[in-house]
Amino acid sequence: MNRIDQAFESDKKDILNVYFTAGYPELDDTVRIARALESAGADMIEIGIPFSDPVADGPTIQESSTKALKNGMNLKLLMKQLEELREQVTIPVLLMGYINPILQYGFEAFCKDCERVGVDGLILPDMPLYEYEELYQEVLEQHGLYNIFLISPQTLEDRIRKIDELSNGFVYMVSSSSITGAKGDISAEQVNYFNRVNSMGLKNKRLIGFGISNRETFVEASKYADGAIIGSAFIKLLSENASDNNIKKFIQEIKGVS
Amino acid sequence: MSMQESKYQVSQKGYYGKFGGAYIPEMLYPNVEELRENYLQIINEPSFQAQFRSLLKDYVGRPTPLYFATRLSEKFGAKIYLKREDLCHTGAHKVNNTVGQILLARALGKKKIIAETGAGQHGVATATVCALMGMDCVVYMGEIDMARQKPNVERMKILGAQVIPATSGSKTLKDATNEAMRHWINNPADTHYIIGSVVGPHPYPDMVARFQSVISEEIKAQLLEKEQKTDPDFIFACVGGGSNAAGAYYHYLDKEDVKLIAVEASGLGNESGKSAATTALGKEGVLHGSRTLLMQTSDGQVVEPYSISAGLDYPGIGPFHANLFDSGRARFVGITDEEAMNAGLLLSRLEGIIPAVESAHAFAALSKVDLGKDKIVVVNLSGRGDKDLETYIKWGKY
To answer: B25: distance to nearest CA of chain A, Å?
Structure first.
């Protein structure tokens, strides 16, 4: 069974998925941060593959990507780090990345290596549905990788159903029409959107991402989904102090563990 | 939607051969899909066409002349015609597209316009039509480009546009494009994004090519009058993203006897590490929503290109052109800074026309191609050199 399903099946509510950029703040931090996240209680981790032109991301994540690239991060190195990471971390590991670096690595080689090093799923924000079905779905399936697509408040019902059909494990509900790192409380309009999606009877679980930054927004989002994803707020924390202790404090606070 | 028959035109799925598509985040999908569903119908409406044609005629100043360049022709032993896009209002072909897109934005009920700009020409063309239509205008421009192209920044401000510096990444055109896309993600409902070239997700490359196709439509009619035939032997055009070339080639794509010469900027030379010649140095990749040829590292990070001409230093080319290159339909020629500047000065002295440095690249390629005697050659003079005076002055040698 895919580790992502296991995480949801353990009947735990309020799954916390934490995003961080590979090779940030220091090149060799990837494994350590993953380990610290698991031991602090994160249920899933999402590792960002740095790209020079991340159009769906706000300044916080873009700056972390730029720094990671400067540090010398690339996909070959990341695969090596992931191999080491998998020996020490048991929770699901997702890779989030724009398609271009993956195409240069070779899509098939990439999926093969992901399987080998124990990656469980992929989030490719600029992958179109049509091309996914035509060219890539089979490759992911051959290598036991889950594919997670995003939906936004503007995504129409038919398309949500199509996205649900093409996704595995969970669907990534983008909380508002925004890039990552946009701030704000959860509005009535957003609640309507979450409820609308929840009433559709989708086959996949749902995690809410974008704008989740602390205990309050995490708890609120978890009311309307199976959990939530924290990205920019965690990157911001890493930029200030990336120590294991600081990570532990941040995660435990969000999970409400004292 | 009507299927295009030509293998050089966009397919129903949004592809030119294997290039194109719409590789965009879900948050951008509704905006792009709204455009895709409506653009052909709107553009083909008689009332739209009447407005578009009327503005091109009375506001832009079309048709632009097809000028027989006597002294240049003597020098090259061919019959060289210049398509005078430099005489368009705002000084370049860019305005053909912005007039079309702002009418389209209005038809879609949009209230605000955003755009990206490199050298500032597209930004000025966008700010111009926004002033004309009384619409809000935000232009993203790389912080470094803003410093390099101060007069254009001020022109946009005079026209009432807000110019926002793109401070991320390399702080140039590609980053301004990223920022504009982000702005659109954050403001999906009332905003239209006017992309300035035949780049971006489908339907942008096709839409922009259609608005620019007036260039080759006019060339056909004008050649018929002057040469009693519609088809030249050669068409030369410079390619950054490729909008002026797309317009100059458009109605000749299936006339394989018309040789299409696409001129890229080789900067200080393709081996120097300072070049923008995408077909020479690029590989297939995905940037700004389309699969195309792209200058990038072996790890798939986009490389910052270089050219003396700010309008040609984009790290990719539109999928329309990637397909022309891949299929062999167009021949791509690289021109260095030095060759372009010399050609610009040559045209100034032979014909009394100071071309934009972008367009000067197209002229420099005349000496790289065996034209044959008395062949009919059209060079698309895409912009005028006023904006480049400082570049000419710095270059000296005149």
So the answer is: 5
